[in-house]
Amino acid sequence: MSIDFESLKDKAVVLAQSGVTKARELTETGIAKARELADTSAAKAKEITEIGKLKVNNSTEQEAIRKAYSELGKLYYAERGSAPEAAYADACQRITDALARISYNNERIADIKAAGQLSDAEVEAVEVEPVPEDGEAQDTSCCCGEAGDDAPCCCQEEDEPKD
To answer: Into how many domains does the chain fold?
Structure first.
């Protein structure tokens, strides 16, 4: 049996060329897929970034609305707080009551500062916890700190005993 090396060589060249062609096709397909994935990822990233920006813009607009509502309420109270329309009477009364309590508290602060010879710096150094916006979590202790859970507050009038 004789081996035809020339024929084997030709077959080897053809197989090598076909292998190179297949490798080139696979490489081009892989590159195309990689580009497609990169483009898709970039598009998604842009969409997500735009959504984030729009959410920030919405938040800014909601804050502007909140401020406008507050301003509107202040204007209404200033103009109509003493004789509000029926739908607004309860809210105006809550504001009036709160303003009265603030005025009373400020008078008490001035009295306490004068009696104790406290400076504004000493008073300002006292940490005050902010009241939640919903107003539900309220401190139940006495305004002057002198009354306990069972004792009446010294700065509030006691109710008449009920028989």
So the answer is: 2
Q: What number of residues does the chain have? A: 163
Q: pTM for the full model? A: 0.48
The answer to whether residue 12 sits within a structural domain is yes
Q: Which residue has the tokens 């909140």?
A: 66
Q: What DSSP line would sit under 4-24, residue for residue? A: -HHHHHHHHHHHHHHHHHHHH
Q: Distance between CA 163 and CA 147 in Å, rounded?
A: 24
The Cα 140–Cα 160 span in angstroms is 21
What average pLDDT is seen over the chain?
83
In one-letter notation, the amino acid at residue 141 is: S
**Residue ranges of the chain with per-residue pLDDT less than 70:** 1, 131-163
Instruction: Give the list of residues 6+ apart from residue 158 with CB closer than 8 angstroms, or none.
Output: 152
CA distances from 91 to 27, 69, 80, 94, 100 (A): 73, 13, 12, 5, 14
Q: State which residues form the domain around 113.
A: 85-122
Q: pLDDT for 108-141, tens place per residue?
A: 988 988 888 888 887 777 777 776 666 554 554 5
Name the residue among 123, 81, 122, 127 with its Cα closest to residue 106.
123
- Statement to judge: residues 22 and 71 lie in one domain: yes
